[in-house]
Amino acid sequence: MTVTLVIHHRVADYHAWKPVFDSHESVRSGHGGTEHRIYRDIQDPNRVVVHIDFPSEQAARDFVADPSLKEVMARAGVEGEPGMSFMDRTERKVYDPSLAGQAA
Hints:
The protein is an alpha+beta fold. The chain has helices at 14-23, 25-30, 57-65, 67-76, and strands at 3-11, 35-40, 47-54, 78-88.
């Protein structure tokens, strides 16, 4: 089972946030993270949603509990308290078969 940690928050400046997010990759992968996807709100590009896949709920929870996460979010300019959910994918349907192997 793959568990997706869904994080949503507003950042002061996406272009300042992104390099700090990137610098934290070793911590995500160190807790078993296998992939991430980033989404930006079309109307407010500083509103960000991040999906990070983990092999288990416990791995995702261990990442959230990592002491470095709060510090890196503050350094990256996250505004307010981020929302976090632990999700289990129940279905994936690709409408265009040519896209079936793409990770996007």
